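Quick question, first post here. What does this chain look like in 3D?
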Amino acid sequence: MIHRLLAAGAVALGLAALPVAAAAQAPADAFVADQAQVVKIRQGALKGTVKDGVAYTLGVPYAAPPVGDLRWRPPAAAPTWTGERDASKAGARCQDVEDCLTINVVRPAGAKPGQKLPVMVWIHGGAYVVGTSMGAFGGDTEGTNFAKKGIVHVSLNYRLGRAGWFAHPALTKEGPTGNYGMMDQIAALKWVQANIAQFGGDPKNVTIYGESAGGISVLYLMLSPDAQGLFSRAIGESSFARHQPTPLKTAEAQGLKAAQDAGVQGDDAAAAAALRKLPLSAMPYTGGLIGRAGPILDGKYITGGIAQGFATGRQAKVPLLIGGNSNEASLVRPQPAQLDAIPDGPKAAILKAFDPGNTGDKARIINDVTTAQLITEPDRNAARLHTKAGQPVYLYYFSRVAPAAKARKPFGAGHTDEIRYVFGAPTAPATFDADDNALSDAMSTYWANFAKTGHPGTAGGVAWPKFDAAKEGQVQFGDDGVKAREHLLKDRLDVIEAGAK
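> Answer (accepted):
Ran it through. Tokens below.
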């Protein structure tokens, strides 16, 4: 019930960060090669760069450009070439162009073909509308620091907005429909399986991970039959683990209206051909960034909601690391009036759990409630279900707010704030203090350990406990460093859980 009552604030379920549109292209453009770096794959030879012991092979096409007649179709075979292809720069962002299906590989410079280093594959967030594989959220996600920890790091671009998440009756009649961006993600994972050994990576030890829309994608990939066997571990950051896909008929109706507004009538082959000739700008979105695009219940790639899929045990049986931040509500900015609108019965339970000191601080309460509803309780639910399925789960809660940011972040760590700590991004130390650097090193070490072994191990002096039914252990990354917790925020989450049923 609480979920429904807070629907206005929760419209963003399954989306990603607002500031992405302003994110700069990855600093890979500025990389200077210390030496030539050539890798030969099935498509041809790639000439990347090496800097400070890290090798960069960037902007590699993993599928044919999805343009013209290939728009709104499953990704086609990647191009081949003769000679050495320049791989010194990341590919274009999919929010800017349609020809964008590229992948980046960053690895230790000494990695040799067949070395079998662990592989991490990053899926970026951005509400399925904006974002890029490299460089966003106040840090750089190219994976340099993971490479320095012995990881072969991969990041990818996938179709966004109407190019990637769009349904129309004429397109449905052709075959697989709607989730073209997810088809791209699967195609990229298949590329990794086919090629990563040439970069020194182990195709049998692949960890997929992502944040927000990328985290949702990770959980849907765990549930997708077409993705099975393409990865062996998964990490979801702020992954909206109760996300529900848009029903196909609803998505088709939305697509039909957008097409009609652009002058394309009908639902036959002629309409499909006419749609493919339109510039995507002819079908502009209305309203804000949130809720424009996202997973569709197509019956093939996505067959139901995340929580329902995990409850029935359909998810990939792989180790899972999952968690979120202390003010995920920063994404939707709930207002105190939403708390006032809740009926007295449910509101009494909320106030007892979320405001035991009777402060009456409505702004903080509604932020905490929305955060628990969107992320924290769904994470606990997913952890319980995956543990019940016999799989190891490692749960986290990120609440660190740097002292300099306290005034502008009064309700805690916002959506996306953990990313630069995870990546230990090169641009981050300039604004990190000693405590931030220590926390960042601990987080990136945990993530790397998990990719290597399926267990995050020990970092920052704390052994990460495996989640279990008795203690529901997890780690908290907070202002006091790394701490192991049991039943964290249980009273709050129990109230939210009751409202979700």
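The domain at 2-248+289-500 is CATH 3.40.50.1820 (Rossmann fold).
Residues 1-35 have pLDDT under 50 and may be disordered.
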